[in-house]
Fold:
Amino acid sequence: MSGIVRTPEPPYYAVIFSSQRTEGDHGYQVMASKMVELASKQKGFLGVEGVRDGELGITVSYWDSLESIKEWKEHVAHQVAQDKGKAEWYSAFSLRVCKVERQRFFEMVK
Structure:
């Protein structure tokens, strides 16, 4: 995950996943990378942005429809990651699904 995702013209959807980590990696980084790779191959996926500062992380994934979000939520490999997250990786998390109705993008011309 690097840089700002260039999304299409709205409307589309954003899934905001905020999380607090437990101590230790316990395979988290490997699984997180696999999930980004797998999500990027899913129908309706538009991109992902994420940051982690110590224990707090925020990941925003962008999707073309609520149906695409539902299919990703129900993906077998993603369910395995969700279960491990609840059991081992997260002390707390929140998930918010938002409809993007307006956007602006700025990039300095070099």
